[in-house]
Each structure stands twice: as C-alpha cells, then as structure tokens.
Write a structure and sequence with these properties.
- By secondary structure, the chain is an all-alpha fold.
- The protein is built from 17 helices and no strands.
- The longest helix is centred in the first third of the chain and has 34 residues, at about 80-110.
Length: about 350
C-alpha cells in the first residue's frame, strides 16, 4: 500500500470512531445541562465519565478540523480548483447545515407545543420557540451572538464553511516562508486559548491550518508513528491528570490534545493492519455524517427522559445509562440511515451532502 493509499485508508477508518467521540461529549454535557438534579454518585463514576467524554473524546473535533484542512488543501492549488471546491462545499456543507438546523427548529417547536414533551424539549441557549424574536431565529441558524446554532453540533460545519471562504488567505500565508512562523503563532494562540473571534473558533482555525500545513507533499504525516507507544503513554498519563483535575489550567487540556491527536493517528494505523477491524470501521464510515447530524437533540432528550424516569442514584446505574444511551442511539441511527439508503437514497444524499457511501 502506498503512502497516499494508507493515509486515505486511515482517514476513512477514523471517521466513525471520531463521530462516536462527538456523541459521547454531548452525552456527558446533556446530563450537566439538564435540570433534573440527579446525583452523580461516587467520585470514581465522574472520573470514568470525564476520562471518556472530556478526555479520550476531546481529540475528535481537532482531528476532524485537521483532516478537513488536509483534504481541502491537498494537491496543487489554483484559482479554478478553489472555485470548484467552493461550489462543491455549497452542496456538501451549506445545504445539510441549513436542513438540519431547520429540522431541529421545527422539532423543538412541535415538541414544545405538547405538555407531555415540552419539559424535555428545550435549549439552554434559546427561549421557547413561540416567543422567538427575529434575532432568535437568526441565532438559531447561525449562532451569531450565542456561538452555537440550535442544532449545536453544526457549529463545526459553520466554522468549517467560514474557513473554506478564508482558504485563499490561509494559502497565501502557507505558500511563503512565513508558513512556519504562522503555524507557530497559531499553535501558541490555541494552546493558551487566546482568540478574539467568536467564530471561527481557535480550535477550528488552528487545526484546519495545521491540516493545510501538513498537506504539502514534502511532509510525511506518518513520521511520528515510530514514537506512537511513547506518545500514547504520555497521553494516558495526561488523561489521568486531566480527569483528576478537570478544572485545572487550560494548558493541561491543550497538552492532552497535543499527545492525543498523534496517538489516535498511530492507533488508526494499527487498526488499518487488522483486517476485520479495518473492514468493520470502513463499513461504518459512510454512516458517520448522518450520525453526526441526527444525534442532537436526540441524545440530550434521551438523557433527560432516562434520568427522569429511572432516577439512578448508584454509581453502577449512572454508568449503565451513560454507556447504554449513546450505544443504543448510535445503533438506531446507523440502522435508520441504512433504511433511508434503501428506500429514499436521493433524500439521504440531499440531507448528508451526498455522503451516503
């Protein structure tokens, strides 16, 4: 397998596990955001939840932005190619973005109109739909002043679209001798969380630019593989530290991602050499965007309903729900996407930007 083929294979293998990470992040924050008042149980329960959702899963978003930057800038840059990519992003990014935010807005409006469901169908950032102002509607689509649209996970797509528009400027900075100082400055701003813009965020901007930087043909994105075991050891050490002190300084979280991103890339290389695991993950890759798009607000509502109904108080019960809710939801969405692919393929292509295979 050539380097290009292996990189493509690794990216395909990574997509679904990273989406699982995104779901796990929202599974954790959904409980924190709810007003149900469930006790968290023993400290070890929260440690487990933090380790998975605020530790391991934290590498998902940076890796997605890095992969996006790498793929967007890979190959020879030209004005015509940029315009062509920009046109294609209208279909693959903008249309799904508008559809899923409108769908979520309607979903909340319908759910809030029934007494039995309105207690679970609310957003922390928005008032009830019936009392929306004009600004609320704009915010629900783009998150102008509240940072997140009503379909919260689509902040990623919104920031990605902004970076695609800014791509010529990024290319200008990376195509000259200023590329290394530019990436260094961006890395410092990201590491210490210094950024004046609401969006695109510093996470989006830095890792998209880093992906663009790594896309140059003279750079070997697998050069750190030989240090994979040592990097992963550092990552797991930082994982314990981060979960033990979740409100510690930002550089602990930043350091966790610094070691977590190459660790995930190295582990993906190991998975690509395991035939059954490779086939399994590549088979699920096509469902990644649909699971990403559809999991919110479902995961939040399921968490709220589940904790209201069962009111778990023991550590084991809390962890059982913590794992079962995302597992069942992801399995359901993968099955639903499979059904849509069979009976409504054109609609599925439309709402996922043709990401159906």
């Amino acid at each position: 397998m050539s380097n290009g083929d292996e990189i493509s294979s690794r990216i395909t293998i990574l997509r679904f596990p990273l989406i699982v990470g995104v779901v796990l992040i929202h599974n954790y924050t959904s409980l924190d955001a709810s007003t149900i008042g469930v006790a968290y149980g023993d400290a070890w329960v929260e440690f487990v939840r933090l380790t998975i959702s605020r530790g391991v899963a934290e590498v998902a978003v940076p890796l997605f932005f890095m992969i996006s930057g790498y793929l967007f800038f890979f190959g020879v840059w030209s004005r015509d190619k940029y315009v062509d990519k920009l046109k294609r992003r209208l279909h693959t990014l903008l249309i799904p973005y508008l559809f899923w935010n409108l769908f979520t807005l309607v979903f909340f409006a319908v759910a809030q109109s029934f007494h039995s469901t309105q207690a679970f169908a609310y957003s922390r950032r928005f008032p009830p739909i019936h009392s929306f102002s004009f600004l609320d509607y704009i915010n629900s689509m783009f998150g102008i002043t509240v940072n997140y649209p009503i379909s919260t996970q689509f902040w990623f797509i919104r920031d990605l679209m902004a970076l695609v528009i800014l791509a010529p400027g990024i290319h200008y900075l990376l195509a000259r001798k200023s590329e290394s100082p530019f990436i260094f400055i961006m890395s410092c701003l990201w590491f210490f969380g210094i950024w004046p813009l609401l969006w695109p965020s510093i996470d989006a901007s830095f890792f998209f630019c880093l992906g663009a930087f790594l896309s140059r043909p003279e750079r070997n994105v697998m050069c750190l593989d030989k240090f994979g075991p040592w990097i992963s050891s550092m990552f797991f050490g930082l994982l314990v530290l981060h979960s033990s002190f979740p409100k510690g300084p930002i550089y602990i979280n930043s350091s966790l991602i610094v070691f977590g991103v190459p660790s995930a890339w190295w582990l993906t290389g190991l998975a690509s050499r395991t035939t059954k695991l490779r086939s399994f993950l590549m088979g699920l890759s096509g469902a990644s965007f649909f699971v990403f798009a559809a999991h919110q607000p479902l995961v939040t509502i399921l968490v709220r309903i589940s904790y209201k109904l069962f009111q778990p108080t023991s550590g084991g019960a809390i962890l059982a729900q913590y794992f079962l809710i995302p597992i069942c939801l992801i399995a359901f969405l993968v099955a639903l996407r499979h059904c849509l692919l069979k009976i409504m393929p054109s609609f599925l292509r439309f709402i996922t930007g043709s990401r159906t295979f």
